Amino acid sequence: MRTDPRPHARAPGHRVLARWLLGAEWRSHRGRALVAIATIALGVALGYAVQLINGAAFNEFSAATRSLSGEADLQVRGAQPFVDEAIYPRLANEPGVSLASPVLAFDVAVRERNSALPMLGIDVFQASRITPDLIGVPAPDRQLDTLASDAVFLSAAAQQWLNVKTGDHVTFLNGTSSVRLRVAGGLVRTRPGQRLAVMDIAAAQWRFGKVGKLSRVDVRLERGVDRQRFKHDLQARLGNMWVIAEARDTDSRTDRLSRAYRINMNVLALVALFTGAFLVFSTQALGVVRRRAQFAMLRVLGLTRTQLMRQILVEGALLGLIGSLCGLALGYAMASAVLHLFGSDLGGGYFPGVQPRANFQPLASAVFLVLGVAVAVLGSMAPALDAARARPAVALKAGAEEGALARLATPWPALGCLLAAAVLTRLPPWFDAPIAGYLAVALLLVGGIALMPRVTAFIFGIASRVCAMRRHPGVTGTLALARLANAPGQASIAMGGVLSSFALIVAMAIMVASFRVSVDDWLMHLLSADLYVRATSAGNSGDAGGLRPDEQARIAALPGIRRAAFARSTHLTLDPARPDVAVLARDIDAADPGATLQMTGTVLAPSAFRAEEIPVWVSEAMVDIYGYKAGQRVHLPLGEAGQVFVVAGVWRDYARQSGAIQMRLADYRRLSGDTNATDVAVSVERGVSVEHVIDELRTLPFGAALQMSQPGEIRARTLMIFDRSFAVTYLLEAVAIVIGLFGVAATFSAQTLARAREFGMLRHVGATRAQILGIFASEGGLLTACGIAFGFALGFAISLILVFVVNPQSFHWSMSLHVPWTILNTVALVMLILSCSTAVVAGRGAVSVDALRAVKEDW
After folding, report:
1. Quick one: which of 461, 253, 230 has its CA closest to 351?
2. What distance, in Å, lies between the first and last C-alpha atoms of the chain?
3. Residue 505 falls within a domain, yes or no?
């Protein structure tokens, strides 16, 4: 049988040729390859680090939360923080229930500690069968400490945080009084970093003023009982005043709590990856243009179109592969450093009390590796197609470089992207996330960049004709404009780098400035008192402790205080799969709620609802999440089951994205019977200093248990947290500037080779080196100025999507638009100066080539 050895002989030769071409290109232009690799590595590193940080924190926090449920099938708890303990025997005797374990859960405060400590009161006999990990471990000779009224068991992290050991005493705050307990030992098992205190439930009820109250009952069902049917029937019997949750509901609550934050952080990381893809495109496109004659010669010698296209795509894929591998290593190092130094929340504050570690995630690693390679291949696709389609005879001729980019001037794909982006901005969120909004931003950016060749030709064509009509046109300006007008493809690639980077800078700067100014205005409206006082033991939820009525009276009677407005904060559970909704009770004038709250939209007057109806004012998140709207009658699990509440208006709340309800303090006290207060807004009399009132408050018997802050301190602390949360966006703005400059440098350095004959001819007809460098500076300045102008327009359009679509759908609050003109003008000026300088530095190679050698080759 005859065999043809030629296919087997040709394949190794093709591989050798591919390696030779790749090695020669990278050796000749290491800088551009390294820049493209570094950009892709940065995008992959940011995304991978965010995924590792949030994934580790989420998993650890979820595991810590699930450990509190143990082996319970269901958790039955009231919609309010504390319920009557009579529910426990009822559930214990419910048909189908194998075991019921009562739990009292609340936060306690410790002096000189910034955060609260979770406290659990358990029945050790029942909990040992459902939540055995929460059982205290007493000393061998003091086994009855698990039932002692003065004993508390602390997890290892809590002991370390409080700097105590077994046998020491800890003083907790219950309202304004103190509860001194003995550390009787540790717990059987807790998650690393999980702070937790456990004591006997009867002792906890007595010592912390919760006699007759429970938080929840953990239920284990008998074998063979249908969990879903039991849950449905029990919920129907108990009504909406009770919430029945499963383990999956806990995971859902944790996921929803931080989902928007995690998505936004990942999208910001993908922005860097997108700019890396564009830099790969510009690098490959300019490389293809510069090597057009080489590729044509290879085609003449027998290289097929498929092989040529594969060669270019392999070059791009290798850029993406090396960049992705470097990015994965850098991202893992970044995640480990952030988790070790700054904690797990990146400033979001969603995962307190856990100490996660960055662990290698195979699936996430594979996804980001593929993503990095994919964007590099996509960036190489258009140059590869063009190189494969080029006719060798035409490509061998000098001056045909611009024809290689002619297809980029087709406007229809760009217009299609812009139209699709406009349609996507009108769509609602998908899976509680602004997916359509982010797609609109991506399409708007792609469409704007794709439209640049046509815009460049139009703008510089007009400018060139206007310059030619002048009586004494300048040589440098005339040549620069003529080049840009007649080679819009290459010009648009250089301008595209500036356009994309400046558009992202504008969009993020406007979004951050709008958010920051809106938060500042909101704080100025909200903080209308002279001093704000809070009971230390109230914690974030306000469910433990507070100021008793007699203590409130003593504060109001202090000399120098003109008015003391008391408030009570608590929370309600409306959906077991969603985070709790905050309830804020304070003095509100129903006729003018805007004096206290920052209202949005329609506000109902008192005449619009009946006397037996109770007005409430809900945050914007309640509108998006639960569908509340002004004038709607709703039933809340507060007071009697048949109580009707009317939504009297919607207010803006930047502090709680899970929803909040404001109501009058008198209504809350009448419905709940709770007369304690957690916060006081103090207005001082004229001529009396705030410092004097603070000193008076310190002299009260319970003064040591009060936290006092002036409006300026609260505002400064809030804005500091805000700036820390948006530190990543500031980093990406700096990265965008660098990428824009790299794009300009890559373009002009490639043109120094592609235009060597052009500059050699200019030297022959009398142009000096300074004039040629002036042409480069003029082209760089004109391109950058045009890119900045259109980048601002594109960035402003993107910022509108971020401000009015993405942020409301992500965090459920609105904001006003603010443009930081000073910052943007400064950045534009810096980019303009640096771009001109970069173009000149990159163009120095054009004047270093001997004029005779530059033109000696035959066109």
Report:
1. 253
2. 51
3. no
Tokens of 64: 């810590």
Radius of gyration for the chain, computed over Cα atoms and rounded to the nearest angstrom: 34
Q: Is residue 179 part of a domain?
A: yes
Alpha-carbon distances of 160 from 129, 166, 421, 446, rounded to whole Å: 28, 11, 53, 52
Where does a domain end: 709, 730, 750? 709
813: alpha, beta or left? (left if phi > 0; alpha if psi -120 to 50): beta
Q: Token pair 């040589």 is at which residue?
A: 475
Q: Distance between CA 564 and CA 566 in Å, rounded?
A: 6
φ/ψ of 8, rounded to 5, equals -75, -25
State phi, psi for 287 to the nearest 5 degrees: -65, -40
In a domain, 738, yes or no: no
* Encoded tokens for 386: 């063009």
If asked whether residues 211 and 328 sit together in one domain, one would say no
Q: Which of 484, 411, 402, 489 is nearest to 448 (CA)?
A: 411
Same domain (yes/no): 275, 380: yes
User: What is the rounded distance in angstroms from the CA atom of residue 469 to the CA atom of residue 473?
Assistant: 8
Question: In this structure, are 44 and 90 located in the same domain?
Answer: no
CA distance 585 to 570: 8
Q: Max alpha carbon distance in the chain (Å)?
A: 113
| Statement to judge: residues 261 and 392 lie in one domain | yes
Q: How far apart are CA 469 and CA 459, in angstroms?
A: 16
Burial of 311 (0-12, 13-18, 19+ CB in 10 A): buried
Q: Under DSSP, is residue 50 helix (H, G, I), strand (E, B) or coil?
A: helix
233 lies in the same domain as 127: yes
The rounded Cα 196 to chain-centroid distance in angstroms is 29
Asked if residues 853 and 782 have their Cβ atoms less than 8 Å apart, the reply is: no
Report in angstroms the alpha-carbon separations of 595 from 125, 584, 679, 735: 53, 16, 18, 43
How buried is 600 (Cβ within 10 angstroms: 0-12 exposed, 13-18 middle, 19+ buried)? middle
Residue 681 lies in a domain: yes
Q: Are residues 266 and 206 in the same domain?
A: no
What string of DSSP letters covers 523-581? HHHH--SSEEEEEGGGTTT--S--B-HHHHHHHHTSTTEEEEEEEEEEEE-S-TTSPPE
Q: DSSP characters for 572-629?
A: E-S-TTSPPEEEEEE---TT-GGGTS-EES----GGGS-TTSEEEEEEHHHHHHH---
Task: Please tell me what DSSP assigns to residue 199.
Answer: E
Q: Are residues 15 and 125 in the same domain?
A: no
* Of 709, 740, 767, the domain-final residue: 709
Q: Is 328 exposed, middle or buried (0-12, 13-18, 19+ CB in 10 A)?
A: buried
92 with 226, same domain: the answer is yes
- What is the mean pLDDT of each successive set of 10 residues along the chain, which is 859 residues long? 45 61 64 74 80 77 76 88 91 92 90 82 92 90 90 93 92 86 92 89 93 92 91 88 83 73 70 67 66 70 76 82 90 84 59 71 87 80 70 56 54 87 91 86 85 79 76 70 68 70 86 92 92 74 74 93 93 89 93 91 88 92 92 88 88 91 94 91 93 93 88 90 74 67 63 63 71 76 84 92 90 91 89 78 62 49
Question: Do 634 and 650 touch, CB atoms closer than 8 A?
Answer: no
Q: Rounded CA gap, 500 and 658, in Å?
A: 34
Question: Number of structural domains, the chain?
Answer: 3
Nearest-angstrom CA–CA distance, 154 and 186: 5
CA distance 287 to 379: 13
Which token pair is 838?
């970069």
How far is 541 from 571, CA to CA, in rounded Å?
Answer: 7
Please give the residue range of the domain that contains residue 261.
Answer: 1-67+255-397
